[in-house]
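Lab notebook: predicted structure, single chain.

Context: the supervisor wants predicted structures on file for every construct in the current expression panel, including those that have not yet been purified. This is the next one on the list. No modifications to the sequence; it matches the entry in the shared construct table.
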Amino acid sequence: VKKTPMEVFTLSSILLLLFLSITNPILALSDQSLISSVLHDKEETCPYTVIVTTSCFSPDWSRDQITISLGDADGNQVVAPRLEEPLSGRGGFKKCSSDTFQVKGQCLKTICSVYIYRSGPDGWIPETVEIYEEGSKSVKFDFNKNVPEN
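Prediction complete. Output recorded below exactly as produced.
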């Protein structure tokens, strides 16, 4: 069977491209991880100091697992799962006391919402949550109500 010059050219081009892609990949796996890390570095991370004050109506100590979500008007959120390690180093969520937590996440515009999620048997009751963001005024949310278990 005689092949036309176009068929020979196409077949040889495909073979050449296949050979080059095997011997010299255009994008190696290490390059992909480099590109991925560059993309993630462009996303800023901001520190937030969160002060949670436990209500005097709360149990003496709480083993409840507490998660908070900070939000801005654009719908962006920073979630701090399972607040367990306050900066004081002494457990958390004691009746009539405050615990300070350091939270990092995407940089939000003005924080305008806080959601509290509680899971556990103790019925922990927050009084206030105050958030400090570097270079901004603090924002304080009053609760003093039981948070239903999720």
